[in-house]
Structures are given as C-alpha cells and as structure tokens.
Amino acid sequence: MTTPVNSRFGDAFLFEAERHAAWGAAQLQALTAFVPAGDWTADLDACLYRQGGLDLRVSVLGTYDLSQGSWMWGWANPGLQGTPVVALSGRAGEYGRAYGMAEFAQETLDLSGFADPRRAAETLAFAAMGVTGAPGYLSVQAGPDTQLYLLADDPRVPRPVFDATALPGALTSAMGLIGHSPYAMAAGYFEHFGLPAHQEPGRITATLPGNLGAEVTFDELGRMANIRVTLAGHL
Description:
Pfam family, one: DUF6882
Shape: globular
Order of helices and strands: HHEEEEHHEHEEHHHEEEE
Largest sheet: 7 strands, antiparallel
Distance between the termini: 56 Å
C-alpha cells in the first residue's frame, strides 16, 4: 500500500498537540538541562541511552528519513515490534486508534509535502510526548539520512512544577510552537497541572495555588488577548 503524501496535519491532531504546547516546552527544557553534553550511544535491547556519563531509560519513538521526508513510528518498525523499547511509544499508536487520529495510528507518514518536513517530524515527536505523558524526547542522528527520536522513560527526569509567576511567560512563549489554537494550549496547561478551570467562549478562568486566580482572554479571531493572575475573587 502506498503511503499518502501529507501536506498538513488534521485539525484533531493539531488541537491535541496544542494542548501540550506550554507544559511540553518547559518539560523539554528540563530534560535538556538534565542530560549532560557529550557523545551518545544507545543499547536498545536494554532500553538505555547514554550521554555524558548518564544512563537514561528510553523508548524508541520513531525515525525520520531526511532524504525521503518520511516518518516511521517506533512501534511499527519491523525490527522492534513487540519489544520493550517501543512499549511507551506504542501508546501513541493506541491513542491515535482510540481517537481517530491517523497521524498517530498510521505506521508511516510521508511528510515530503509539508512546507517544512523536518518541523513536521518534530511536531509528531512533540505531540507523542504529550499524549504518552513522557518527560521529553531526544533527537539524534543515527545515520547519514536518519534522525532517531527517543522518548525519555525515566522517573529521574525532573518534572517542572506549576509557578503562578511564570504563567504569563509560559503561555505567551508557547503561542507559536504549534500555532493552531491558543485556547487549547491554555486549557491544556491548566489541565496538565490539575488546576480547576472554567472554560467559556473567549475566556478561561482557573483557580491557582496560594489563593490566586487566573484569567486568560481571547479576541474574536481566537488570539490570546490578555493573561491576568490576581488574588482569588478579584478577576
């Protein structure tokens, strides 16, 4: 069967990716700070990635062929199917089948029709990190034309905690990461940290720790218009 050429992701997938944009960006920074610089090796049978003296448990997320502009999910790789090293990434496939998202459910995707196929591959990896709840992903060159993507699957990777003072910066800096729905991005941020939030057209309010409240408003085009953090009851 010929893999269809994709030129854009579907709306359902983009909304899903957007839900993880703000917290995911912070999580990637935490992983980058945790892994020391240095040369890398991997022992896939042992689910281990080694860099700078650190052994990190990982799952193979996928591979991106730079020459063809194609992506293969790790769980679909014939040489890895059913092995422990693709167990975590396999959850992305399960999620795609459960919610009708071909981007997760298709074994391979032809991204050559995208304006920026490499960015499309990064978007797939980022979204998969979100739906699996992994604490980040790594991208390394595994061959002249092969980029290997690995999900961190190690409880030692720090997980950022919610910080009300960082809320405005976290939301505004993530607006262009996916660029599909700032509303979904803000709602997903509150959901990730388990913060009670009320959603209505053009407005999200949330209850924050420390007797604080947050209000995020959006204009008629869906763009983020304002972010306020105040004492609870003073929004």
